[in-house]
Write a structure and sequence with these properties.
The longest helix is centred in the first third of the chain and has 14 residues, at 56-69. The protein is globular. Strands 1, 2, 3, 4, 5, 6 and 7 form a seven-stranded antiparallel β-sheet that branches. The protein has 220 residues and is α+β, with helices and mostly antiparallel strands. Residues 1-17 have low confidence and may be disordered. The chain has one domain. Helices cover 19% and strands 19% of the residues. Helix 3 runs antiparallel to helix 4. Strand 2 and strand 3 (85-88) form a beta hairpin.
Length: 220
């Protein structure tokens, strides 16, 4: 595997590559925007009977099942290095304990909605009611986090997600889910105040921990 893979979306020299992620837009990995908290997902939680013989496509399908069961609307796939991927979930409004707000209030508009525009999304979020908001990203990669970039705004995260794909390319079915791979959940939590545009990210370890978020999101 090359130490610096070609761009996940296939940009670059145009030469052929065996990177499974070549058809995906790139998630910034291994230097993602700093999350509020993160957690490793143990393989046995995905495959209780063992992960021997499983591929990254199998991992994606297990995640898809949990994501759909938890009620998320428009998860988006991006590449995370040459043979890794990220799944960005919808931005959601949550209760103080981490549970999603019921009904339509629980989600900001998704990239999958007809007529979605980033400007419209940001306008809605700018005038959104006060409270807590969350976006979760699952990253499956054989490369660990090297460093993080400054904490993002919700708009910056959505700008990353808008180029994501609705499904994982079939090439990931040829990539074994070996011991080298880790599944990491990055949790980005924001608090919006009463003023328009008054949103800030909750700092690392500042409120709920990542496992609490995942349980309240019904993903674990």
């Amino acid at each position: 595997m090359p130490t610096r893979p070609p761009a996940a979306n296939g940009a670059g020299s145009g030469h052929a590559t065996d990177c499974a992620a070549r058809q995906l837009a790139a998630f910034p990995w291994p230097s993602p925007p700093a999350p509020s908290d993160s957690a490793l997902i143990a393989p046995y939680l995905l495959f209780p009977d063992g992960s021997q013989g499983k591929t990254l496509l199998d991992v994606a399908r297990k995640l898809e099942g949990a994501i759909a069961a938890a009620g998320y609307l428009g998860p988006r796939y991006l590449g995370a290095g040459c043979n890794g991927f990220a799944v960005m979930l919808d931005l959601e409004q949550i209760e103080p304990d981490g549970a999603r707000k019921p009904g339509a209030a629980g989600f900001a508009p998704t990239t999958a909605e007809p007529g979605f525009t980033l400007a419209g999304y940001l306008k809605r979020l700018f005038y959104a009611p006060p409270g807590y908001y969350r976006q979760i990203v699952f990253v499956v990669s054989d490369v660990g986090i090297a460093a993080t970039t400054p904490t993002p705004t919700p708009g910056e995260l959505r700008a990353i997600a808008k180029d994501g794909s609705a499904a994982l390319p079939p090439g990931f079915g040829a990539v074994p889910f070996s011991w080298k791979y880790q599944v990491v959940a990055l949790v980005y939590e924001f608090q919006k105040g009463a003023a328009d545009g008054d949103a800030r990210q909750i700092p690392p370890n500042g409120r709920l921990r990542a496992p609490q978020h995942l349980k309240k999101a019904q993903l674990l």
